[in-house]
Write a structure and sequence with these properties.
This protein has about 425 residues and is mainly beta. Helix content is about 5%, strand content about 40%. It contains two helices and 29 strands. The strands form four sheets. Strands 1, 2, 16, 19, 20, 21, 22, 24, 27 and 29 form a ten-stranded antiparallel sheet that branches. Strands 3, 6, 7, 8, 10, 13 and 15 form a seven-stranded antiparallel sheet that branches. A hairpin with a 2-residue loop joins strand 11 and strand 12. The longest helix has 16 residues, at about 405-420. The relative contact order is 0.17.
Protein backbone atom coordinates (compact mmCIF):
# COMPACT_ATOMS: atom_id res chain seq x y z
CA UNK A 1 0.00 0.00 0.00
CA UNK A 2 1.29 3.44 -0.85
CA UNK A 3 2.04 5.41 2.32
CA UNK A 4 2.95 8.62 0.47
CA UNK A 5 0.67 11.58 1.37
CA UNK A 6 -1.91 12.14 -1.35
CA UNK A 7 -2.50 15.50 -2.93
CA UNK A 8 -6.11 16.55 -2.39
CA UNK A 9 -7.44 19.61 -4.18
CA UNK A 10 -9.69 21.98 -2.29
CA UNK A 11 -11.38 25.33 -2.74
CA UNK A 12 -10.65 27.67 0.14
CA UNK A 13 -13.36 29.74 1.77
CA UNK A 14 -12.16 32.90 0.03
CA UNK A 15 -12.47 31.29 -3.38
CA UNK A 16 -8.77 30.83 -4.19
CA UNK A 17 -7.45 27.47 -5.34
CA UNK A 18 -5.18 25.56 -2.99
CA UNK A 19 -3.22 22.36 -3.53
CA UNK A 20 -2.56 20.67 -0.21
CA UNK A 21 -1.44 17.36 1.24
CA UNK A 22 -4.00 17.88 4.00
CA UNK A 23 -7.23 15.90 4.07
CA UNK A 24 -9.82 18.42 2.92
CA UNK A 25 -13.10 17.70 1.19
CA UNK A 26 -14.41 19.87 -1.62
CA UNK A 27 -18.01 20.94 -1.07
CA UNK A 28 -19.93 21.64 -4.21
CA UNK A 29 -21.66 25.01 -4.58
CA UNK A 30 -25.43 25.53 -4.54
CA UNK A 31 -26.89 26.58 -7.88
CA UNK A 32 -30.63 25.96 -7.58
CA UNK A 33 -33.18 24.38 -5.24
CA UNK A 34 -36.73 23.60 -6.34
CA UNK A 35 -38.14 23.78 -2.81
CA UNK A 36 -36.58 26.97 -1.45
CA UNK A 37 -36.90 28.79 -4.80
CA UNK A 38 -40.49 27.78 -5.55
CA UNK A 39 -42.61 30.79 -6.50
CA UNK A 40 -45.71 31.96 -8.33
CA UNK A 41 -43.67 33.77 -10.97
CA UNK A 42 -42.68 31.89 -14.10
CA UNK A 43 -38.94 32.03 -14.69
CA UNK A 44 -37.99 33.31 -11.23
CA UNK A 45 -34.59 31.93 -10.18
CA UNK A 46 -34.57 29.93 -13.41
CA UNK A 47 -37.66 27.82 -12.57
CA UNK A 48 -40.72 27.44 -14.82
CA UNK A 49 -43.75 25.25 -14.09
CA UNK A 50 -45.83 23.30 -16.55
CA UNK A 51 -46.54 19.88 -17.98
CA UNK A 52 -46.00 17.38 -20.77
CA UNK A 53 -49.11 16.24 -22.63
CA UNK A 54 -47.78 12.73 -23.23
CA UNK A 55 -50.90 11.71 -25.14
CA UNK A 56 -50.58 14.45 -27.75
CA UNK A 57 -47.12 16.05 -27.85
CA UNK A 58 -44.80 13.73 -25.93
CA UNK A 59 -42.21 15.54 -23.84
CA UNK A 60 -42.70 19.01 -25.31
CA UNK A 61 -42.82 21.33 -22.31
CA UNK A 62 -46.00 23.42 -21.99
CA UNK A 63 -45.77 26.17 -19.34
CA UNK A 64 -48.75 26.85 -17.11
CA UNK A 65 -50.56 30.11 -17.81
CA UNK A 66 -49.59 32.85 -15.34
CA UNK A 67 -53.15 32.93 -14.02
CA UNK A 68 -53.00 29.27 -12.91
CA UNK A 69 -51.11 30.00 -9.69
CA UNK A 70 -53.55 30.16 -6.76
CA UNK A 71 -51.16 31.44 -4.11
CA UNK A 72 -49.67 28.09 -3.11
CA UNK A 73 -50.03 25.74 -6.11
CA UNK A 74 -49.75 25.87 -9.89
CA UNK A 75 -53.02 24.14 -10.75
CA UNK A 76 -55.12 23.48 -13.82
CA UNK A 77 -58.09 25.91 -13.68
CA UNK A 78 -61.76 25.10 -13.13
CA UNK A 79 -61.15 22.11 -10.90
CA UNK A 80 -60.22 18.53 -11.70
CA UNK A 81 -59.75 16.70 -14.02
CA UNK A 82 -57.12 17.12 -15.20
CA UNK A 83 -55.33 16.75 -11.86
CA UNK A 84 -52.10 18.29 -13.16
CA UNK A 85 -50.47 20.50 -10.54
CA UNK A 86 -47.09 21.52 -9.05
CA UNK A 87 -46.42 22.86 -5.55
CA UNK A 88 -43.29 23.62 -3.53
CA UNK A 89 -42.72 20.04 -2.41
CA UNK A 90 -44.42 17.98 -5.09
CA UNK A 91 -47.44 17.74 -7.29
CA UNK A 92 -49.87 15.47 -9.09
CA UNK A 93 -49.89 14.12 -12.66
CA UNK A 94 -53.00 13.30 -14.70
CA UNK A 95 -53.72 9.75 -15.76
CA UNK A 96 -55.45 8.11 -18.71
CA UNK A 97 -58.45 7.47 -16.44
CA UNK A 98 -59.06 11.24 -16.52
CA UNK A 99 -58.33 12.10 -20.16
CA UNK A 100 -54.90 12.83 -21.59
CA UNK A 101 -51.79 11.66 -19.77
CA UNK A 102 -50.01 14.67 -18.23
CA UNK A 103 -46.62 14.75 -16.52
CA UNK A 104 -46.30 17.57 -13.97
CA UNK A 105 -42.99 19.31 -14.67
CA UNK A 106 -40.53 21.67 -13.00
CA UNK A 107 -38.16 23.13 -15.59
CA UNK A 108 -34.85 24.68 -14.62
CA UNK A 109 -33.12 26.83 -17.24
CA UNK A 110 -29.38 26.75 -16.63
CA UNK A 111 -27.99 30.11 -15.58
CA UNK A 112 -24.66 31.58 -16.65
CA UNK A 113 -22.30 30.82 -13.76
CA UNK A 114 -19.07 30.53 -15.73
CA UNK A 115 -18.74 33.48 -18.07
CA UNK A 116 -20.74 31.91 -20.89
CA UNK A 117 -18.71 28.67 -20.77
CA UNK A 118 -19.99 25.16 -19.99
CA UNK A 119 -19.65 23.84 -16.46
CA UNK A 120 -20.42 20.70 -14.50
CA UNK A 121 -23.38 20.15 -12.20
CA UNK A 122 -24.65 17.46 -9.90
CA UNK A 123 -28.44 17.24 -10.22
CA UNK A 124 -29.79 15.62 -7.05
CA UNK A 125 -33.45 14.73 -7.44
CA UNK A 126 -35.98 12.76 -5.45
CA UNK A 127 -39.46 11.27 -5.59
CA UNK A 128 -41.71 9.78 -2.90
CA UNK A 129 -45.43 9.28 -2.34
CA UNK A 130 -47.20 12.03 -0.38
CA UNK A 131 -50.47 10.12 -0.63
CA UNK A 132 -49.44 6.66 0.56
CA UNK A 133 -53.00 5.33 0.43
CA UNK A 134 -52.41 3.12 -2.60
CA UNK A 135 -52.68 3.32 -6.35
CA UNK A 136 -50.19 1.83 -8.79
CA UNK A 137 -47.40 4.32 -8.06
CA UNK A 138 -45.68 7.05 -10.03
CA UNK A 139 -42.48 7.66 -11.97
CA UNK A 140 -39.96 10.48 -11.74
CA UNK A 141 -38.02 11.45 -14.86
CA UNK A 142 -35.17 13.85 -15.63
CA UNK A 143 -34.59 15.34 -19.09
CA UNK A 144 -31.60 17.37 -20.29
CA UNK A 145 -32.55 19.43 -23.35
CA UNK A 146 -35.40 17.01 -24.01
CA UNK A 147 -33.32 13.82 -23.68
CA UNK A 148 -34.18 11.42 -20.88
CA UNK A 149 -31.19 10.94 -18.57
CA UNK A 150 -32.74 9.13 -15.59
CA UNK A 151 -36.01 7.72 -14.24
CA UNK A 152 -37.29 5.95 -11.12
CA UNK A 153 -40.65 4.27 -10.49
CA UNK A 154 -42.04 3.80 -6.98
CA UNK A 155 -45.06 1.96 -5.61
CA UNK A 156 -48.30 3.49 -4.42
CA UNK A 157 -47.48 3.22 -0.71
CA UNK A 158 -43.79 4.17 -0.90
CA UNK A 159 -43.40 7.18 1.35
CA UNK A 160 -39.59 6.86 1.35
CA UNK A 161 -39.23 6.77 -2.41
CA UNK A 162 -35.99 7.17 -4.32
CA UNK A 163 -33.24 9.75 -4.68
CA UNK A 164 -30.78 9.97 -7.52
CA UNK A 165 -27.82 12.07 -8.63
CA UNK A 166 -26.63 12.83 -12.16
CA UNK A 167 -23.39 14.52 -13.23
CA UNK A 168 -24.01 16.65 -16.32
CA UNK A 169 -22.03 19.12 -18.37
CA UNK A 170 -24.32 22.07 -19.10
CA UNK A 171 -24.32 25.34 -21.04
CA UNK A 172 -26.18 28.52 -20.11
CA UNK A 173 -29.72 28.21 -21.48
CA UNK A 174 -29.85 24.41 -21.29
CA UNK A 175 -33.06 23.01 -19.81
CA UNK A 176 -33.46 20.41 -17.09
CA UNK A 177 -36.98 19.02 -16.73
CA UNK A 178 -37.97 17.17 -13.55
CA UNK A 179 -41.20 15.36 -14.38
CA UNK A 180 -43.76 13.45 -12.32
CA UNK A 181 -45.66 10.93 -14.45
CA UNK A 182 -48.65 8.72 -13.50
CA UNK A 183 -46.92 5.56 -14.73
CA UNK A 184 -46.82 3.03 -11.91
CA UNK A 185 -45.10 -0.24 -11.14
CA UNK A 186 -47.64 -2.11 -13.28
CA UNK A 187 -46.71 0.14 -16.24
CA UNK A 188 -50.25 1.54 -16.22
CA UNK A 189 -51.04 5.28 -16.30
CA UNK A 190 -53.93 5.60 -13.84
CA UNK A 191 -53.58 8.57 -11.47
CA UNK A 192 -55.39 7.21 -8.39
CA UNK A 193 -53.73 8.45 -5.17
CA UNK A 194 -50.84 9.92 -7.19
CA UNK A 195 -50.11 12.93 -4.99
CA UNK A 196 -46.33 12.84 -4.62
CA UNK A 197 -43.24 14.68 -3.45
CA UNK A 198 -40.71 15.47 -6.16
CA UNK A 199 -38.04 18.06 -6.65
CA UNK A 200 -34.37 18.74 -7.26
CA UNK A 201 -31.30 20.44 -5.91
CA UNK A 202 -28.62 21.46 -8.42
CA UNK A 203 -25.02 22.05 -7.40
CA UNK A 204 -21.98 23.10 -9.36
CA UNK A 205 -19.78 20.04 -9.37
CA UNK A 206 -16.77 19.71 -11.65
CA UNK A 207 -15.59 21.06 -14.98
CA UNK A 208 -14.03 17.93 -16.43
CA UNK A 209 -15.37 17.03 -19.85
CA UNK A 210 -13.77 13.58 -19.84
CA UNK A 211 -14.70 12.13 -16.47
CA UNK A 212 -14.63 8.36 -16.74
CA UNK A 213 -16.59 6.12 -14.37
CA UNK A 214 -14.30 3.84 -12.36
CA UNK A 215 -16.57 2.37 -9.66
CA UNK A 216 -20.07 2.78 -8.26
CA UNK A 217 -21.04 1.29 -4.88
CA UNK A 218 -24.63 0.73 -5.97
CA UNK A 219 -24.04 -0.65 -9.46
CA UNK A 220 -21.11 -2.79 -8.29
CA UNK A 221 -22.86 -4.27 -5.23
CA UNK A 222 -22.48 -8.07 -5.41
CA UNK A 223 -25.50 -10.35 -5.61
CA UNK A 224 -25.64 -14.12 -5.61
CA UNK A 225 -21.94 -14.69 -4.85
CA UNK A 226 -20.80 -17.17 -2.20
CA UNK A 227 -17.76 -14.98 -1.44
CA UNK A 228 -18.54 -11.45 -2.60
CA UNK A 229 -15.76 -9.74 -0.62
CA UNK A 230 -13.52 -7.94 -3.09
CA UNK A 231 -15.88 -8.28 -6.06
CA UNK A 232 -15.48 -5.28 -8.38
CA UNK A 233 -12.90 -3.91 -5.95
CA UNK A 234 -15.40 -3.49 -3.08
CA UNK A 235 -15.30 -5.02 0.40
CA UNK A 236 -17.87 -4.74 3.20
CA UNK A 237 -17.41 -4.54 6.94
CA UNK A 238 -17.20 -2.15 9.86
CA UNK A 239 -15.04 -0.10 12.20
CA UNK A 240 -15.39 -0.90 15.93
CA UNK A 241 -14.97 2.63 17.25
CA UNK A 242 -15.60 1.79 20.93
CA UNK A 243 -12.95 -0.91 21.19
CA UNK A 244 -10.43 0.29 18.58
CA UNK A 245 -10.90 4.04 18.56
CA UNK A 246 -10.90 6.17 15.43
CA UNK A 247 -9.68 4.44 12.25
CA UNK A 248 -5.92 3.86 12.21
CA UNK A 249 -3.67 5.26 9.48
CA UNK A 250 -3.66 2.74 6.69
CA UNK A 251 -7.19 1.61 7.57
CA UNK A 252 -5.82 -1.65 9.02
CA UNK A 253 -8.48 -1.87 11.75
CA UNK A 254 -11.26 -2.29 9.16
CA UNK A 255 -13.08 -5.55 10.01
CA UNK A 256 -14.52 -7.35 6.95
CA UNK A 257 -17.80 -9.18 7.32
CA UNK A 258 -16.88 -12.89 7.12
CA UNK A 259 -18.51 -15.17 4.60
CA UNK A 260 -18.49 -18.49 6.48
CA UNK A 261 -22.06 -18.03 7.69
CA UNK A 262 -21.14 -18.49 11.36
CA UNK A 263 -20.90 -14.93 12.62
CA UNK A 264 -22.61 -13.01 9.88
CA UNK A 265 -24.41 -13.68 6.64
CA UNK A 266 -24.42 -12.47 3.05
CA UNK A 267 -27.78 -13.17 1.43
CA UNK A 268 -26.95 -11.63 -1.94
CA UNK A 269 -28.94 -8.54 -0.98
CA UNK A 270 -27.19 -7.32 2.17
CA UNK A 271 -24.33 -7.87 4.54
CA UNK A 272 -25.68 -8.21 8.07
CA UNK A 273 -23.78 -8.32 11.34
CA UNK A 274 -26.91 -8.92 13.39
CA UNK A 275 -25.65 -12.25 14.78
CA UNK A 276 -22.61 -10.68 16.46
CA UNK A 277 -23.47 -11.23 20.13
CA UNK A 278 -22.45 -8.80 22.83
CA UNK A 279 -21.83 -9.92 26.41
CA UNK A 280 -25.21 -8.63 27.55
CA UNK A 281 -26.97 -10.66 24.85
CA UNK A 282 -27.84 -7.74 22.59
CA UNK A 283 -26.85 -7.66 18.94
CA UNK A 284 -25.53 -4.84 16.73
CA UNK A 285 -27.60 -3.25 14.00
CA UNK A 286 -24.61 -3.03 11.66
CA UNK A 287 -25.53 -3.96 8.09
CA UNK A 288 -25.11 -2.92 4.48
CA UNK A 289 -27.31 -3.31 1.42
CA UNK A 290 -27.10 -2.15 -2.16
CA UNK A 291 -27.96 1.37 -1.03
CA UNK A 292 -29.29 0.99 2.50
CA UNK A 293 -27.23 0.67 5.62
CA UNK A 294 -27.36 0.93 9.41
CA UNK A 295 -24.61 1.62 11.96
CA UNK A 296 -24.62 0.50 15.58
CA UNK A 297 -24.84 3.00 18.39
CA UNK A 298 -23.61 3.00 21.97
CA UNK A 299 -27.21 2.45 23.09
CA UNK A 300 -27.21 -1.01 21.46
CA UNK A 301 -24.76 -3.20 23.33
CA UNK A 302 -22.52 -0.32 24.25
CA UNK A 303 -20.43 -0.51 21.08
CA UNK A 304 -20.28 2.10 18.32
CA UNK A 305 -19.77 0.52 14.89
CA UNK A 306 -19.53 2.24 11.53
CA UNK A 307 -20.88 0.30 8.54
CA UNK A 308 -18.24 0.55 5.80
CA UNK A 309 -18.09 0.16 2.05
CA UNK A 310 -14.40 -0.10 1.09
CA UNK A 311 -12.98 0.35 -2.41
CA UNK A 312 -9.41 -0.83 -3.03
CA UNK A 313 -7.66 0.93 -5.90
CA UNK A 314 -7.06 -1.67 -8.61
CA UNK A 315 -4.19 -2.18 -11.03
CA UNK A 316 -5.08 -0.10 -14.07
CA UNK A 317 -7.15 2.44 -12.10
CA UNK A 318 -6.16 6.07 -12.70
CA UNK A 319 -3.87 7.84 -10.26
CA UNK A 320 -6.27 10.79 -10.00
CA UNK A 321 -9.91 10.26 -9.11
CA UNK A 322 -12.94 12.23 -8.01
CA UNK A 323 -14.77 10.52 -5.14
CA UNK A 324 -18.39 11.59 -4.90
CA UNK A 325 -20.54 10.55 -1.93
CA UNK A 326 -24.11 11.00 -0.75
CA UNK A 327 -26.19 10.34 2.38
CA UNK A 328 -29.86 10.69 3.27
CA UNK A 329 -32.15 9.34 5.98
CA UNK A 330 -34.24 6.31 5.07
CA UNK A 331 -36.09 5.97 8.40
CA UNK A 332 -37.32 9.54 8.80
CA UNK A 333 -36.99 9.73 12.59
CA UNK A 334 -34.24 9.85 15.17
CA UNK A 335 -31.21 12.09 15.52
CA UNK A 336 -29.56 11.46 12.17
CA UNK A 337 -26.32 9.90 10.97
CA UNK A 338 -22.92 10.91 9.60
CA UNK A 339 -20.85 9.78 6.65
CA UNK A 340 -17.05 9.68 6.85
CA UNK A 341 -14.88 9.32 3.76
CA UNK A 342 -11.41 7.97 4.49
CA UNK A 343 -8.33 7.48 2.34
CA UNK A 344 -6.00 4.87 3.86
CA UNK A 345 -7.68 5.47 7.22
CA UNK A 346 -7.37 9.27 7.12
CA UNK A 347 -10.44 11.46 6.85
CA UNK A 348 -10.92 13.43 3.63
CA UNK A 349 -14.57 14.38 4.10
CA UNK A 350 -17.52 14.13 6.48
CA UNK A 351 -21.16 15.18 6.53
CA UNK A 352 -24.08 14.84 8.97
CA UNK A 353 -27.78 14.71 8.12
CA UNK A 354 -30.75 15.00 10.48
CA UNK A 355 -33.07 12.10 11.17
CA UNK A 356 -35.89 13.54 9.08
CA UNK A 357 -33.69 14.58 6.14
CA UNK A 358 -34.85 12.42 3.25
CA UNK A 359 -33.05 14.65 0.74
CA UNK A 360 -29.63 14.61 2.37
CA UNK A 361 -26.22 15.70 1.09
CA UNK A 362 -24.05 15.27 -1.98
CA UNK A 363 -20.34 16.03 -1.73
CA UNK A 364 -17.03 15.27 -3.44
CA UNK A 365 -13.24 15.49 -3.23
CA UNK A 366 -10.37 14.99 -5.67
CA UNK A 367 -7.59 12.51 -4.85
CA UNK A 368 -4.24 12.59 -6.64
CA UNK A 369 -1.28 10.22 -6.45
CA UNK A 370 -3.34 7.06 -5.93
CA UNK A 371 -1.67 3.66 -6.25
CA UNK A 372 -3.01 0.09 -6.40
CA UNK A 373 -3.75 -1.11 -2.90
CA UNK A 374 -4.86 2.27 -1.55
CA UNK A 375 -8.24 1.99 0.18
CA UNK A 376 -11.15 4.43 0.14
CA UNK A 377 -13.72 3.86 2.91
CA UNK A 378 -17.28 5.17 2.82
CA UNK A 379 -18.39 4.81 6.44
CA UNK A 380 -21.87 5.26 7.95
CA UNK A 381 -21.69 6.40 11.58
CA UNK A 382 -24.47 6.68 14.21
CA UNK A 383 -23.18 10.15 15.07
CA UNK A 384 -26.20 12.38 14.61
CA UNK A 385 -26.91 15.99 15.40
CA UNK A 386 -26.51 15.51 19.18
CA UNK A 387 -25.42 11.97 20.04
CA UNK A 388 -24.23 8.55 18.80
CA UNK A 389 -27.37 6.56 19.53
CA UNK A 390 -28.67 4.47 16.62
CA UNK A 391 -32.43 4.98 16.96
CA UNK A 392 -34.06 5.08 13.50
CA UNK A 393 -30.62 5.27 11.85
CA UNK A 394 -31.55 3.39 8.67
CA UNK A 395 -29.93 5.41 5.89
CA UNK A 396 -29.19 5.37 2.19
CA UNK A 397 -25.61 6.12 1.22
CA UNK A 398 -23.06 5.33 -1.42
CA UNK A 399 -20.19 6.58 -3.54
CA UNK A 400 -18.95 6.85 -7.10
CA UNK A 401 -15.39 7.14 -8.36
CA UNK A 402 -14.41 8.93 -11.57
CA UNK A 403 -11.13 9.31 -13.43
CA UNK A 404 -10.04 12.93 -13.76
CA UNK A 405 -7.53 14.64 -16.06
CA UNK A 406 -3.84 14.95 -15.35
CA UNK A 407 -3.05 17.25 -12.38
CA UNK A 408 -1.99 20.28 -14.45
CA UNK A 409 -5.31 20.36 -16.29
CA UNK A 410 -7.22 19.63 -13.09
CA UNK A 411 -5.68 22.71 -11.49
CA UNK A 412 -6.78 24.92 -14.37
CA UNK A 413 -10.28 23.51 -14.33
CA UNK A 414 -10.65 23.88 -10.59
CA UNK A 415 -9.59 27.49 -10.97
CA UNK A 416 -12.58 27.92 -13.27
CA UNK A 417 -14.81 26.15 -10.82
CA UNK A 418 -13.82 28.62 -8.11
CA UNK A 419 -15.37 31.33 -10.28
CA UNK A 420 -18.55 29.33 -10.70
CA UNK A 421 -18.84 28.56 -7.00
CA UNK A 422 -18.26 32.01 -5.63
CA UNK A 423 -20.05 34.17 -8.16
CA UNK A 424 -23.45 32.69 -7.21
CA UNK A 425 -25.82 35.35 -5.90
CA UNK A 426 -27.98 33.03 -3.80
CA UNK A 427 -27.18 30.53 -1.03
Amino acid sequence: MNKTPHLILALTACGALSASAQNIGVRTGAAANSQTEFSGTQGQDGWTYGYFNNSQSGVDFIPFDDSWYNGTVWDWPAGNPPWTEVNANGGHPNGDNNGDIHSAVRRYTVEDLNGGQPYGIAADWWISKANTGGGNGVTGEVYHNGTLVNASTIGGTDGLGASNANFLMVNPGDTLDFALTPQGTDLGFSDGSDGSNFGARIQTANLWNNLGAVADSRLDFPTGLSDPQGANGWSYGYYDITNNGAPDPGGTDFIPFPTDGTTTRSTGNWWDGSTFDYPDGSVPWTFLGTESGHPNGTNSGGTEEWAVRRYEVQAGDPGAMLVEWDLRAENLNGDGTSIFVLLNGEQIGADTVGGNDGIGIHNSAVLLGLSPGDVIDIALSPQGLTDSADGSDGSRFGARLYAVPEPSRALLLLGGMAFALFQRRRR
